[in-house]
Amino acid sequence: QVQLVESGGGLVQPGGSLRLSCVVSGLTFGYYAIGWFRQAPGKEHKSISCISPDGNMDYAESVKGRFTIARDNAKNTVYLQMNSLKPEDTAVYYCAPDCVPPVSGSWGQGTQVTVSS
Question: Were 59 and a residue from 64, 89, 91, 102 both cysteine, which residue would form a disulfide, CB within 3.0 to 4.6 Å?
């Protein structure tokens, strides 16, 4: 059973930083691209970053230069370092075993990020 568990969210002031983690089990981690997505209240999931099996990284324009994605294949974990956070980054953040949303529409529990003073 494929399982992705997100963690690391919290409340942070504008300009602050957080590092999210996504621990993956139930698949051959090194074969999969892993994507980070977020869902703001009342909105759909949006892709914000993705990392390929060989480490190629991609970012949405809204986070480029502020967020950094990385993977540790030994730990089956993908990280999202978020710097210079803005109130508009407030959302629930999810990871998935692809750069596009799951076809099944099924997501993990996500981790809440709130950027507020």
Answer: 64
